[in-house]
Amino acid sequence: xxxxxxxxxxxxxxxxxxxxxxxxxxxxxxxxxxxxxxxxxxxxxxxxxxxxxxxxxxxxxxxxxxxxxxxxxxxxxxxxxxxxxxxxxxxxxxxxxxxxxxxxxxxxxxxxxxxxxxxxxxxxxxxxxxxxxxxxxxxxxxxxxxxxxxxxxxxxxxxxxxxxxxxxxxxxxxxxxxxxxxxxxxxxxxxxxxxxxxxxxxxxxxxxxxxxxxxxxxxxxxxxxxxxxxxxxxxxxxxxxxxxxxxxxx
Length: 250
Hints:
By secondary structure, the chain is of the alpha+beta class. The protein is 30% helix and 30% strand. Strands 3, 4, 7, 8, 9, 10, 11 and 14 form an eight-stranded mixed β-sheet that branches. Strands 1-2 form a two-stranded antiparallel sheet. Strands 5-6 form a two-stranded antiparallel sheet. Strand 5 (128-129) and strand 6 form a beta hairpin. The termini are far apart.
């Protein structure tokens, strides 16, 4: 008796054409995603960082100098805007333009220190950057004690920002007491060592005006992150420079 063999069942092969189209769609989708991420996220971020970092910060000294060439206070802030815009935003933030140095102002600050009277626009000693003393100086009083104050000096940078607007490099420090200079023996204000705290105080006060159009930090602006200023006061920093753009005036 002949045995009838059942036909062998074979699984039909998947259509090759459909498989090729599927892989082509996947590859195209991945390539499109890579393009979109690169073109609209990574590259713009890279250019934005480059434009903010170069070229106007490349040759900027990190520390100011006294008239005798002794290292002074470190730079820790920069503002972008015209002189009028800088003056306006600092005034709106509660900062007063410092009086120029002179016999009259020196006598007044000495008397106010002894009598504990406020002097909102007391002069600040000169520091130097780019071979010249500060272009602008501002301060905030602390109560009625002229021995303590927030203050910042600004120098107009030699290079403008990428958008062509002026850049003002600043050294913001907090005067915590009056005493004798550790280097010259002269009567002077002594700064608090944490210059980052004063940087943040200044930025907070500017934010309160709502006139900051941009704010970012430049990491590793300082390679040397501690030192002493011209009066022998120690200072330390996290190495960052705060950069704020002032909203342009109409």
